[in-house]
Amino acid sequence: MYYAVRVNGLSCKDPAAVVSDDFFAGADKLRDEVSERYGFSALTVQIPGLNTQGQRYARVDLAPGAIFPPHYHPRAAETALVLEGSVYFGFVSSYPDNKLFSKVLHKGDVFAVPQGLMHFLYNNGTAPATLYASLSSQNPGLVLLADALFAGALPDDLLAKTLLTDKHTVDNIRANFRPS
Amino acid sequence: MYYAVRVNGLSCKDPAAVVSDDFFAGADKLRDEVSERYGFSALTVQIPGLNTQGQRYARVDLAPGAIFPPHYHPRAAETALVLEGSVYFGFVSSYPDNKLFSKVLHKGDVFAVPQGLMHFLYNNGTAPATLYASLSSQNPGLVLLADALFAGALPDDLLAKTLLTDKHTVDNIRANFRPS
Amino acid sequence: MYYAVRVNGLSCKDPAAVVSDDFFAGADKLRDEVSERYGFSALTVQIPGLNTQGQRYARVDLAPGAIFPPHYHPRAAETALVLEGSVYFGFVSSYPDNKLFSKVLHKGDVFAVPQGLMHFLYNNGTAPATLYASLSSQNPGLVLLADALFAGALPDDLLAKTLLTDKHTVDNIRANFRPS
Amino acid sequence: MYYAVRVNGLSCKDPAAVVSDDFFAGADKLRDEVSERYGFSALTVQIPGLNTQGQRYARVDLAPGAIFPPHYHPRAAETALVLEGSVYFGFVSSYPDNKLFSKVLHKGDVFAVPQGLMHFLYNNGTAPATLYASLSSQNPGLVLLADALFAGALPDDLLAKTLLTDKHTVDNIRANFRPS
Amino acid sequence: MYYAVRVNGLSCKDPAAVVSDDFFAGADKLRDEVSERYGFSALTVQIPGLNTQGQRYARVDLAPGAIFPPHYHPRAAETALVLEGSVYFGFVSSYPDNKLFSKVLHKGDVFAVPQGLMHFLYNNGTAPATLYASLSSQNPGLVLLADALFAGALPDDLLAKTLLTDKHTVDNIRANFRPS
Amino acid sequence: MYYAVRVNGLSCKDPAAVVSDDFFAGADKLRDEVSERYGFSALTVQIPGLNTQGQRYARVDLAPGAIFPPHYHPRAAETALVLEGSVYFGFVSSYPDNKLFSKVLHKGDVFAVPQGLMHFLYNNGTAPATLYASLSSQNPGLVLLADALFAGALPDDLLAKTLLTDKHTVDNIRANFRPS
């Protein structure tokens, strides 16, 4: 049976060696995963035992005025619980509607984002805000729209056409995503 | 495209009528779902928009000395975050090992239970404890082992054989699960 | 293509080396998997070729008066065919109904148990009974409720609270699950 | 919760109206599903409660000399248990190997066929044979190769090219699949 | 069996009424689905019979200088075949790498984009280009990054923070996405 | 995160070593995969990056009069686009209907075949025909009905019974599938 488990990729650790800590994550196990550029920090909850269970979690801290800029998870839906403070949370529906679904969330409120849709967090209050985000995959992935557009190697003229603007505007924006 | 969505069962509400509240759950939307017998309450987070997203959530409150008795979810794995207080959380592995994996969790700690395994919560401290439980299905189901054995219509002799004891002991235990 | 097969975990044997016996299980391949405590034996059908096909099988033999105590499979639904004799087969629905669905099955009858629900077998007749159980996973897992509660390391007071009884009763039952 | 169940298509019967018989199939519920042309009969086990559980079953009876001709299930793997008699059971691997994997099975033997591969049963003994076939889908489908080729409306010249023979041979074979 | 098919959502048309045209799409069935703003047109191949088969297709036409701006499909991977002309095709990997994977494709070339990643098409040649895009879902969804950011109701200050620029720049870009 | 990816079998190449060519397939990467016996060639599009994305592609060339004989894919649905010429494309539904669904396809037309059903291509025109076939699995498999029946080691009498004919006819057909 153990052999079958390994064959099916459900585990790559000797089952006999599995311990309680493989299913546990304390504050000391939180690992910073996202840049501080936007004034937030996202700390991923590392739980080896969740590896094939279709779940992943993160704690997100937002200072007053901080944002978790528009992003999406290529392989997961997300649900977030507010632990402290207030935050403006929203997502935008698919083309062609681009309809905004949003709420100002307070402690104890929960908001959900369907699989793959673009969403954002904005702490437009005066107190720090903390959220607990749940993702429906052990490997959800993360794409920040601004970084995907400006931090990478997309051609300037492609970006100008995309934003219906000129290269000059594109270069000005891009400069901030490529610190010299 | 909308038609396809409905055909695939991904939604049963007119997409044009979907609003932000369909993805939101405030304290006022929490619904009591489990009996108070054990001194705990489990409040399910009701989010219509999560219906086909493979996620479901609950807030669990445990008074000092209260337990969420050994139970499992037939169709989901679970991960729980401690919001307040401390709690002794554990699960037991499959037959024949029946190995206990457990931790005393404090605020901010997270513990995970693999798909379908029996787990429990025990507030053996002096302060109330609150947890936020995440389930990997929009319809996880819940089976309390004691209720499944004693609250239903299982034959007494089957139960006696199961517990390696006598009918008298079974009847004494069962009496408390069948208030007259 | 063979490489892709291995990458996708659909096989871990050199396809060129696969033989008919990899899809075959004779009586000599049946392997005892469950303790004899309850007077039954469950023999798992070992078929390497089924490893990624979402199926697993077992032959269950019950002496007169024997039971396969209340149990469930964390990762599978089950369907059983009676090969010989008669058996009382049932399962209990989820909380809060705990409704018993059961039948006395005779040779040729088939009974099904939905994913993860607690079920049991009881040969309350005078002749031996044999069943062929089909599980909808190559790695269904098995949890015996009584063992999960009493054979493991659950705290006595947790068990007493769970069974709405006292530690003395718990200790008396537990003693039989922990032979000295 | 019930609403969610219905939304997800996990049930289309009022849960409150579900009874034990919805999970049971006795001999009287077996329904003939395949023509008698080849001297066999396949009786499908009808269990409403299995509808979304990824399983389906059939009892197959083969008179001496009878065959269940080469066929496959577009949406399922199959495993068969011999209940009575002996049978020659085999499947052929994919193109380009077309390798035969087969066994002469006796009472109690089990043989498995991977998802979608062509397989057959041949009772080349002198006693009736009975098998219990398990399929890994509630809607496995069935394609008999000879019927798919000759009973339908495939053009004669396409068939001749396919069999590397002439139209005369095709017409002779086809005549038996189209009784006037 | 037909009933089961409907129950499982595999079809919502009376099987007896299904005809060849339900599996066919000719040029006359192509339906314009995307705005002409960027000089391209994407014509979705409408095939009712594909509804539950996990596939969807589109023909994309790009005039010289036209782009299919950076976008992604929340529920699908994509593979595209060049039918005519040449096109610069690329996708950007997840945060934090934002690595560009791209190729200039010519007639007969194929390029693939993993599930949910941002990709784009750019006809930087002098002849029209046509592609056949395959999506791994019957309901892939489409999100154009620029529209998701500027065409919807995101707050200006959130956008300014996101793009590391000022509201003035945001308003100038946004003006083109909100024709008066 | 990369480790998790490998554990889940989503990749077996060092992510840091992945390059654009891993998502690209030019004409030079097409690999012949099917015998020329029937006058067609099927060239599989080899794209490493598609390995776990549930897609696979092939280019099929048919000379005038050539056929891609009746076959099926055990693990995939198929959709084909006509790139050049015309072709008669059809599939046959399951037992007992064996109903033919077919169309004469011209350049730009698309036809779909549900998961696992038998289908064929026939160029009954005077010009060469080329198609682009899309399969809904990275490992669809291929079974040619005629080869499965005649090229393998099926017993002659089983084949005779299957085709409702005599061994002489079977031997005559089989001779062409077993060149001496």
Automatic annotation (TrEMBL), chains A, B, C, D, E, F:
GO (cellular component) term, any one: apoplast
Keyword Manganese appears in the UniProt entry: yes
A molecular function (GO) term: manganese ion binding
One Pfam family this sequence matches: Cupin_1
InterPro entries found in the cross-reference section: Cupin_1 (IPR006045), Germin (IPR001929), RmlC-like_jellyroll (IPR014710), RmlC_Cupin_sf (IPR011051)
Record key words, sorted: Apoplast, Manganese, Metal-binding, Secreted
SUPFAM superfamilies: RmlC-like cupins
Name recorded for this polypeptide: Germin-like protein
